[in-house]
Hints:
Number of strands: 14
Structural class: mainly beta
CATH class: Mainly Beta
Largest sheet: 12 strands, antiparallel
Oligomer: single chain
CATH topology: Jelly Rolls
Amino acid sequence: MSLIYINDVSATLEPLPFRYCVIDNLWSPGLLTRVRDEFPGPSDPRWIRYGDPEHEEKLEGPSRMFGAATRELVAAIEGTEKSIREAFGLPPMVLSTEGGGYHQTNPGGGLAIHADFNRTEDGLYRRINVIVYLNLLHELPVGGDLELWDADGPVAKVSPSFNRTLIFETHDASFHGHPKALQGSQPRLSFAAYFFTPDRPENYSGAHSTIWHPRGKRTPS
């Protein structure tokens, strides 16, 4: 195992089921509180809404919804690029929130186990996911843990606790999701941004959209 250092905080870079790390208290709590406050209400028409009961039921908030604190968080994530690429042994990367940004899953929703799209329309290759969790301890929804899978099933779980950051490499087998229907009254809140490279990965086998794990479908409420 190796270590990753970001903003004078260190964490173990775990090798399985794919390389990832979990870092607590990486960001200013005040900043993340302001980001939470900028989440639009669930009826806001700007949300991108996913309502597929087999794969994903969630809200996605693109950059046009971001407030000043959220843009500050994006800049802070972008500032981690050098530390992340050195830890993962990657070439220089660029940050994007396309497909990311605000993520809100309401009670009853969920996200089936999947590997993400691997190339943008303008030819950049997706290499790293950064997910910042925003649920306070008394708001943690039952069923909200993110599961990391290998070919056979779950290997690790990450609770979406406030100021917990998950960083992981993305490729055809980086399967993850939270397929259990959320229980209780609290939504699951997170913010996601992704690093891309113009350089083609060594294991690249062609462009693909989301790959759904055959055993990781949504579990209904």
